[in-house]
Each structure stands twice: as C-alpha cells, then as structure tokens.
Amino acid sequence: MLGELVKMKLTGYHDVGFKERTGEEYTAVVNPETYTLNYEIQANQESAGGTSANQSTFNKIAPRKLEFEFLFDSTGALTPTGAAPPRSVGTSEGVWEQVEQLKKTSFDFIGETHQPPYVELAWGKLIFKCKTEKINITYKLFKPDGTPVRAIARVSFVEVINDELRSKKEKTASPDLTHLRTVQEGDTLPLMCHRIYGDSTLYREVARVNKLVNFRKLVAGQRLFFPPIDKQQTVNRKP
C-alpha cells in the first residue's frame, strides 16, 4: 500500500510569525514530480594585503530556496480516479481561476500589510515557511477560442526565518565561533574584539594568539585570527 494521496498545499499569512492567516489557500491540482532545495554559503571577497588576489571569508548561510513546477489543468484528464476535480474543470474560465488562486495565496500585494503574503508550504514532511521570489507561467493547451486549459508555473520560494530564530541558528557574533578578519583602515584591536565578541577587553587574548608585538599598530590588509574564547579562562589568566 502506498498510502493516501496528499496534495501540496500553500497557505497565506500576514505576518512573519505565521500566526495571522490571510484567508487564502491553494492546493495543487497535481503534485510536483520533483522539487529542488538550494543551500548557499555567502562569502565576503577581501583583498589580501600586498596582492591583487581576493580571498573569500565566510559571511553567512543564505536562506534556503525551494524551486519546482505546478501543473494547472482544467480538462479533467489529470484528475486522479475518485478525486474531486478542480472547480474550474469544465468551466469557460480554463485554468485562469487556478492561476489566480495561486497568485492570491502567494504573490499578490496585500493592502493591509503593504507587501505580498508570507507563505507556508506543506507537503508530507516538507514544511517550508517562505516568501515568493518569482512565478513564471507557461500556457500550453488551448480551446478554439484561445482559453488556456493547461499551464505550467515555475515557482521559486525563499525561506523566511524571524530575527530571533535566525540569531539563534547563526550565532554570527558568538565567541564560540572562529573568525578570520582583514584589518580595515581605522580598525583597532579592541574595536574588532567588540564587533566579534561584544567585549573589547578580550584584545589581550587575541594579541597573544596572533603573536602581536604591538597591538596598537595594526596595518590595513593585515589578517587576524579571532579564536573561540572562554571568557572565564581569560579572566583567570590575567595577572
């Protein structure tokens, strides 16, 4: 037994917390054959001192991107046996109603919030909270009067994570992470420590790790290693 057929479903929301629904939903006529989840690491391109070459340093992990194709059909030929056909099957509207419902749920501007909706996409174990990046629709089959009765929408959604959750996941300013930074004009070691650790007093430990003879004389383009630091051990090490 393959189990009960579950259709992919999109639900529109007003807020990034996904608590207030817009009232719009879209259920796929036919589930996608495949979908693609894109993962990307974004890097900073920094010039190495004394050379023309650039060196990539980690910046952040970009939001995931989900891409797939929706098939719209109003001929009834693609409706599974025993399943209820889409409302537009057999009507003079063709696939327009299905396309418009997808757009209302995931794309169209909402006057109350002055932006397109947030979207929760659910299909089996895939729960993807996102915003629509783009929808490209190709109309493929037509009635004699030109009404489209079949179409394919190539859609792309970008994952949405609220600021609090993103901060917990990335911890980009955490002293538990290793950082490699290029000194910029005007940088001081205490200032760089404040940016990375949130504590400018850790400059002594960073100077020790990098074997800096004079931490007050940093040179633009110089590369410095900012290691994970246990603040308590650092306090105990101070004279």
From TrEMBL:
Superkingdom of origin: Bacteria
InterPro entries: CIS_tube_prot_N, LysM
Domain LysM: from-to ranges: 179-226
Pfam family, one: CIS_tube
PROSITE patterns registered for this protein in UniProt: LYSM
Name under which the protein is recorded: LysM peptidoglycan-binding domain-containing protein
Natural source organism: Larkinella punicea
